[in-house]
Amino acid sequence: MQLAVWTYEGPPHIGAMRVADSMVGLHYVLHAPQGDTYADLLFTMIQRSGRRPPVTYSTFQARDLGGDTAELFMAAARDAYERFRPQALLVGASCTAELIQDDPGGLARTLGLPIPVVAVELPAYQKKENWGAAETFYQVVRAFAGALPPPGTRRERRAVPRCNILGPTSLGFRNRDDLREVRHLLDLLGIEVNLVAPLGASPADLARIGDADFNVVLYPEIANPVAAWLKRAFGQEATRTVPIGVGATRDFIREVAALAGVDPGPALRAEDTRLPWYSRSVDSTYLTGKRVFVFGDATHAVAAARVASKELGFRVVGIGTYSRELAREVRDCAARHGVESLIADDYLEVEARIAELQPELVLGTQMERHVAKRLGIPCAVISAPVHVQDFPARTSPQMGFEGANVLFDTWVHPLMMGLEEHLLAMFRDDFEFHDGAAPSHLGHAAKAAPMAEAVAPAPVAAAAPAAAVWAPEAEAELRKIPFFVRGKARRNTERFALERGIATITVETLYDAKAHFAR
Amino acid sequence: MNSIAPRPSAGGCSDAPVLLERGQREVFCGLTGIVWLHRKIQDAFFLVVGSRTCAHLLQSAAGVMIFAEPRFATAILEERDLAGLLDANAELDRVAARLLERRPDIRLLFLVGSCPSEVIKLDLKRAAERLDARFRPAVRVLNYSGSGIETTFTQGEDACLAALVPEMARSDESQLLVVGALAEVVEDQFRRIFAELGIGPVRFLPPRRAAELPPVGAGTRMLLAQPFLADTARALEARGALHLPAPFPLGAEGTTLWLRAAAEAWGVEEARFDAVTAAPAARARAAVERVRASLAGRSVFFFPDSQLEIPIARFLARECGMRPIEVGTPYLHRAHLAPELELLPAGPTLSEGQHVERQLDRCRAARPDLVVCGLGLANPLEAEGVTTKWSIELVFSPIQGYDQAADLAGLFARPLARRAALEV
Ligand code: SF4
């Protein structure tokens, strides 16, 4: 039993949902109780999808457990086929259905549907979301990859080299924008993109996956098993460099150019990033040797450590990951930086390490953002689990040269904010700093706000005509209003009292004002 | 004087047929209640015994309001726990002990059952008794189930409160018990009104702190503040409490009728009742009136979510002039909702349970001006051009009582106003 408050990864069927949602023409029928439908909101709210994920839940209840659950699942699968007419069905069980052992794959096949059925078994009590996504992607590719060449077939070089891009998924951290950057780099190299998968691919498209000369693996957590199989089955080599940061992007260009047999020159010369110069400009001096702690999925953590140390001049004092599947990469990276690695999926452990190391900057996930906030340490988010903020309206990649620009901005700005925080803390008792002027996202400032609320004398109105006085009960009532609207409530009530010449604000006045201003 | 609109002569929806649906339900499970219950009972901790899915659900539902150290967590069952139940119990004891050590401020620990714990028949009742014997009196340990195979969304609160009932001391003293979690600001407003009416003592379930758990007995008369408390009400009745049937305190009318039920039970004179309620009711009506213009005449369609759908439809229909087309509820408690159904003007389809695809078909065909639905459906419907109000806010915001009536109306007016304002 593991005690978890927040988790870095969802259960493995969430990974399968991400693959299904990424693809076109694939529908996932999930054997699950009603409450598991919460997962839809990850797509509709975090990613702001304008459509529901292509998932049908069998929705069984306690009273079905005697024997009808299999029938419910079959009905759900049949209905899903009739209604959505997908090219293929993906079927599987959530944690609860795994315990009742209905065998969704077997059940779906007995339906005799005129489309292929891919069953994925994702052990919910052992594995997690990224593993589930990788396994699902692998099963789907194997099911639809088309005829394999006879063993020993040598790949012919084409006039225009072609690659697949593997790994981008729904709910992936900045995947949308990374993909755009990487396509741009491939374009500069004159390499054609045969297929992107799973994002945007249909089962029918996957039949062409063998047509590429090699594979670009953007997210090893998701695409490694597929890439390994494609190498065995089609002899396709795969990239190993993830182009996050200037150095890694240059390496990636060289690696891809070598795989494709083209000249890396055009892409290298088109290097369009301000990071190297900004990092050398004198105002960046204060970044030197800043102690950073890095935590995230293995890919982003390892990449961030390189950028932090080699491109921004920080000192990496700790690095860790929640991706046990790729723990070795992180251990190696830690060794290169001469620090201890932390392989953990318990955020309390990560918190303890951060508290112990007292870094000056945390590069982590949303979880570390909260930890850092509490500890009053600046933080930038570098990895999933994703948050609605990780789907910004603007293009904001992590990869490629534009990605390097984004990294510079997003990692350095919290430090600037750190300076600003300092000022806010210094001027804590200056009234102009509180009322409504909620400071930024960092720790001590956030704490300062309620404190100010408690100590600040009500309205500091130097030249105002006789402002109303708050009766103690009204003041107490006001404090029950959520802090983020309290300031407005206070101002509105005072305005209301002033306009009516009310000398003492009572609870009644507060609510009269509230009713008055109600829209 | 309170002017209450006459009850519809036909008895509203009292005898309306109910469309019973069975299929995919786009609803949360009862675990979700933890998100507001742990804010309400300030020294309680909720330990879900479940899977990674349960932990992920809580995290996703609570995502909007992350607290430094939330007073809930999940004991995630792993492969080796499933191997033998003895193990799982020992593990649970270990996890609970570690947790209580970390949090000496906790006075009440709930072990919350989930689908996996139910399916493997992990006996959390016995586990709670065992842990209770070990940690009392410093910490009480209770259990309930919030599993998705047994509970829908707000039913989790019902199960939690029902678990508290056996812990309530016995007292036959006369008291008014208000049942159902309310925001503190709302509780305090009601406290003041009851005091002015001379009704008392008034106690609330759940209490803000574990030690303030009210007593119950033959002198207890209870008002339900929420429509989803079937099991809790039954448990309280079994302990001698008398349920005062009333509509729910949503809107000026609902609040007046709800207060009146208590006033009648306490024999408060009509004149006094009017003197106390007239001003706030008028204030509420005036405030709602300002919102009404943007709602009147518009049609509204409810997907099932919190069981608040019928009372809210009644408010929107009678006080805001909206036209409910379909009112879906996950579960329809005939007895507790009877006063509401009587008030709800005849017309809408009432549906219970859900087949989400068929309901979406009905919704698209009906082309309502506003759809009230969960987070999984809201953005996809918006993308189809349908204006939506996501329903979870109705559970997280203070909406009961006179001074929140306009806020409640505002929740529905805002999406319409927004759509009208946008020109992109
Ligand atoms: S539906 Fe069941 S398995 Fe899913 S989150 Fe709720 S309790 Fe856990």
Task: Name the biggest interface.
Answer: A-B, 65 and 77 residues
Strand order of the largest sheet of chain B: 1-12-11-10-13-14
> Oligomerization state of this entry?
heterodimer
Q: Based on CA inertia axes, which overall geometry of chain B fits? A: globular
What is the strand content of chain B?
15-25%
- Average residue pLDDT of chain B: 94
Describe the structure.
The complex is a heterodimer of chains A (519) and B (424). Chain A is of the alpha/beta class. Chain A contains 21 helices and 16 strands. Chain A has helices spanning 12-22, 40-46, 69-84, 95-100, 104-110, 129-144, 175-188, 203-206, 220-234, 246-260, 265-269, 275-280, 298-311, 327-337, 347-357, 366-375, 400-426, 443-455, 472-480, 483-499, 507-517, and strands at residues 2-4, 26-31, 55-57, 88-93, 117-119, 162-166, 192-197, 214-217, 237-238, 291-296, 315-321, 341-343, 361-364, 379-381, 469-470, 504-505. In chain A, the strands form 4 sheets. A 5-stranded parallel beta sheet of chain A has the order 12-11-10-13-14, sandwiched between helices. In chain A, strand 13 (361-364), helix 16 and strand 14 (379-381) form a beta-alpha-beta unit. In chain A, helix 1 crosses helix 6 and helix 6 (129-144) runs parallel beside helix 9. Chain B has 3 domains: 18-25 and 291-423, Rossmann fold (3-Layer(aba) Sandwich); 30-151, Rossmann fold (3-Layer(aba) Sandwich); 175-277, Rossmann fold, CATH 3.40.50.1980. Chain B has 17 helices and 14 strands. In chain B, the strands form 3 sheets. A 6-stranded parallel beta sheet of chain B has the order 1-12-11-10-13-14, sandwiched between helices. A 4-stranded parallel beta sheet of chain B has the order 3-2-4-5, sandwiched between helices. In chain B, strands 7-6-8-9 form a 4-stranded parallel beta sheet, with helices on both faces. The longest helix of chain B has 26 residues, at 270-295. The interface between A and B is large, with 65 and 77 residues. Strand 1 (2-4) of chain A pairs antiparallel with strand 3 (72-76) of chain B. Iron/sulfur cluster (SF4) sits between chains B (29, 31, 50-51, 53-54, 57, 114-115, 147-148) and A (33, 35-36, 95-96).
